[in-house]
Amino acid sequence: MNPTETVSSLFKRLRFxxxxxxxxxxxxxxxxAMKTMGFSDLVLVSPRCADPLHDPESVAFAxxxxxxxxxxxxxxxxxxxxxxxxxxxxxxxxxxxxxxPVWSPRExxxxxxxxxxxxxxxxxxxxxFGLPNQIVEQCNVLINIPANPDYSSLNLxxxxxxxxxxxxxxxxxxxxxxxxxxxxxxxASVAQVEGMYAxxxxxxxxxxxxxxxxPKKLMPRLKRLFARAQLETEEVNILRGIARQMMKAxxxxxxxxxxx
Length: 260
Fold this sequence. Notes:
Helices cover 43% and strands 11% of the residues. It has 260 residues and is α/β, with parallel strands linked by helices. The protein has a 7-stranded parallel beta sheet. The longest helix is centred in the middle third of the chain and has 17 residues, at 156-172.
């Protein structure tokens, strides 16, 4: 269960609608794309493939997203597919002369995630023919995925994956964290970092790398370098340990060379 998944969250509100899909494998692939991003509401409108929810190819391409397939519904009209939805977005690489406003996936996801009372649907058409104009014209917006203008054709499940990814980012918002990814220690305090800088400067002078009478910009550059690293307490301690060993190993007479 996604930690941000509540009844009002986009994970529960967003619906994926596939219109007249020809290949059962694409249905399974879309289910997989949805599940990897935390979505599960899938509706098929008049699929052209037989038994797309149980076809061996569909099951194989779902690759673990069988629950999304089992929960999917098959209907015979776009009206039935959009029952309960109050915002429809057609997805197409082909722009129409008469179409609703054209949005990017990011614009759609931000809008959908930002309105808790919105029940949006993403509508994807047939692999070969796309969406009929009459369906596009009924939608609130047309989503066009920015792609190579010389070859803008995305596989059905690839398009679904891009959209699901953008919607996941928008749904998580400020709740996105790196929790559980790698080790994260306690952030070093300003005083700890400044103490480390002073210690490091003394060590660089001791080994002759820094000329104390003509330091130029070496320390400001090092401070900028370490600032980008967002040092942790243990890392500061390691750097001070290195500085300590440098000072122990330094020759009795300091060198005069300076470095910028």
